[in-house]
Amino acid sequence: MQVRSAEFVMSNSKVEQCPKALIPEYAFIGRSNVGKSSLINQLTLRKSLAKTSGRPGKTQLINHFIINGQWFLVDLPGYGYARVSKKDKKQFQSYIQEYFKKREQLVCTFVLVDIRHHPQPIDLDFMVWLTENERPFYIVFTKADKLKPGAIERQVNAYLKEMTDTLWEFAPPHVVTSSSNGTGREELLEVIDELNQAFNSNFSAK
User: Fold this and answer.
1) Taking all residues of the chain, what is their mean pLDDT, rounded to a whole number?
2) Domain containing 36: what range?
3) Phi-psi group of 35: left, alpha or beta (phi > 0 → left; psi -120 to 50 → alpha; rest → beta)
């Protein structure tokens, strides 16, 4: 898939105010400082589509971008940032859960995790919650440029093994990415393209 256009549509904190168009939608979420904004900018080849910041936790709304006029990319608030107040965390959690429960157009969620770290409880808890709520997801390993090729494979295998040893019978699908050198960009776009085709096929059959 080629990204020919990427445009900001809206930001809000209420699912009811999200775009009404029945086109496929993909949510990007992860711990604060996982490199989400950089990945979105790399994916769309736009330097500042998603706002990057040295201060984690800056994204605090549901941000919709329309790609190629055909599908939505949704930038969601990061979770797990200590400096966000308990009140704000509770508020974020409330409207993000509402988003996942009510957003019918949501085809898949891309859960971003830093490839350098072992599975973190906050990430695993969120993935369990998605599974319990029947929301398909991919794990997107970020910052692959920080490791050597052999270490990347070992780290991914160890991460997925820990998941299957404790939580899942089968490991979730995954993509390894780097915003610095473009690793995984084409693979991630291919995943979205295939899911778009399936969504459009199912929608036209109704």
Assistant:
1) 88
2) 6-205
3) left
